[in-house]
Each structure stands twice: as C-alpha cells, then as structure tokens.
Write a structure and sequence with these properties.
Pfam families: Glycos_transf_2
InterPro entries: Glyco_trans_2-like, Nucleotide-diphossugar_trans
Structural class: alpha/beta
Oligomer: single chain
Largest sheet: 5 strands, mixed
Number of strands: 15
Radius of gyration: 19 Å
Organism: Streptomyces mesophilus
Number of domains: 2
Keywords: Transferase
Helix content: 25-40%
GO molecular function, one term: transferase activity
CATH architecture of the largest domain: Alpha-Beta Complex
Number of helices: 9
Distance between the termini: 35 Å
C-alpha cells in the first residue's frame, strides 16, 4: 500500500483489511505501507491504530508506482521463501469482510493467474479489470472473467507471476504502471481474471479535476496533463511504444492535443 495525506481514508482501508474473515487455515497477512511524505499525520496514526503494520516513511516525491515498488521490496525481504501472494491495495479501498477469501478462492481455482478484485461505488463498478481496445471495465458476472489488464486498486498476484513479471516498472512513477504491468503479464503468458463478484468499495476519482478543471486555460491545463500525476511525456511515450504498436505516435500526442482543445474551448 501507498498513502499520502489521506489519514482517515487510509485508516478505514486498514481496518477493513483487519476484519477479513473466512480465510484458509494458516493464512498470515502482513501489511507493508509506504507513507509518501504525509503532513496530516498518516504514518503516526497508522502506527498507533495498527501497530502490526510495517510503515516506511518517504518524502513526497514518491508517487503510487514508486511507493508500490518499495512496498513490494519490503514485503519480499520480510516474507523470505514463505510468501505465496502479494496483494496490491489502494488506500481508498474499503474491502468487504470476505474479500480476501473470495480472491484466494479464485486463486485456488487458477493458481497461475493474477486475480483482480472489482470495486464499486454504490451499484456502479468503478475499478476492475480492463478489456479490449477501449480498455472497458470488466463487470463481475458470478464467474471468473478474463481481462487484458487491470486497475491496480485490488490485485492478488501469485509469487510465481511476481517473479516473472516483476513490480510496477520504475519508468511509471505514478499512473500507467498498473496497465503496463497487466499487459506485461499477458505477454508473459500469465492470465488475469476478475473475481466473480465485487470485493469492496472505492469512489471514482472526481471527473473535472486536474487538467480537466474548467476555466484554467490552455497553459495550465497542459502543465497539469504533463505532470507526474497525469501523463508525463517520457513515461507516456514508453507506454505507447510498448502497447500501441503502429498507433504509438498518434496515441502519444492525442491526449495533449485534446487537453489543449478542451481548455481552449472552455469544455
């Protein structure tokens, strides 16, 4: 897990994780949290409320992708030869009480597969596996559903898959690293499957923020869209080259052009 200035949200995620029930006998869950320069007391609050959580403090230059690499490294160092799976968990996900049991049951059926947990906000799926050229959300259907890649909110990765695919690539400090990881897994012949039902709650990111905030002007919109939080050009180009084939040059420029047009027309 990685956190930054979402103390209450992070504590809620950890409390839900601690409530997990119906786990297979002998299951041991260890939590590794990277707190990326929070100024709202997240790290201290976690240590008080959840003393069993391994908390590592970094500065605020660490974003989600980098934080998840650090957390993975720390978990592997502590787990030694014993660990069987890694779970990616966003700090804004409140898991259902039997979420881990659902994921592990799916993993037992398909031991080589990465299992993705879809999450909801109300009745609507917000994050899940992704499929097709448009990377559409994969809805839970009551059975395991294949996907091409995935959002990184809830992802259970067997050790064998982690050893073959690795962690979130260092070229993606924040976004795109989860999609890239899923596509790399697919190229390595490792299936990704969405669990039969939703495993928790997670709100969708607000739609008209960042570079999409109305009235900020073209220059500010472009500054935001090219920042680490959105689509930094170097990372975006790597992603396009890897996964877009001949469409890479067009895909590379399209979000920046669309951002400028949208800001310039006030949309």
């Amino acid at each position: 897990m990685t956190s930054h200035n979402r103390c209450t949200t992070t504590l809620s995620a950890l409390t839900a994780l601690k409530r997990q029930c119906g786990l297979p006998p002998g299951t041991d869950v260890q939590v590794f949290l990277v707190d990326a320069g929070s100024t709202d007391g997240t790290g201290e609050a976690v240590r008080r409320a959840h003393p069993d959580v391994h908390v590592m403090d970094t500065d605020d230059s660490v974003f989600w992708g980098h934080g998840m690499r650090i957390a993975s490294r720390n978990s592997r160092a502590a787990g030694g030869p014993a660990f069987t799976h890694q779970l990616w968990l966003n700090d804004d996900v409140v898991l259902d009480d039997d979420a881990l049991a659902v994921l592990l049951a799916a993993a037992e059926k398909e031991p080589e597969a990465i299992v993705v947990g879809a999450v909801r906000d109300g009745a609507a799926t917000t994050y899940s596996g992704r499929r097709g050229r448009g990377l559409d959300l994969v809805e839970p259907t009551g059975r395991l559903e294949p996907c091409d890649t995935y959002n990184g909110n809830v992802v259970l990765i067997p050790r064998t898959a982690r050893d073959r695919v690795g962690d979130v690539d260092k070229r993606f400090p924040h976004g795109m690293g989860d999609y890239d990881h899923g596509f790399r897994a697919r190229k390595a012949g490792i299936p990704a499957l969405v669990a039969p039902r939703h495993v928790g709650r997670c709100p969708r990111n607000p739609p008209r923020t960042g570079s999409r905030e109305p009235g900020i002007g073209v220059r500010e919109a472009l500054r935001r869209v090219t920042s680490v939080r959105e689509l930094p050009p170097r990372a975006w180009w790597v992603y396009c080259l890897r996964h877009a084939g001949r469409r890479a040059p067009v895909l590379m420029v399209s979000p920046y052009v669309m951002t400028a047009v949208r800001a310039g027309t006030g949309r």
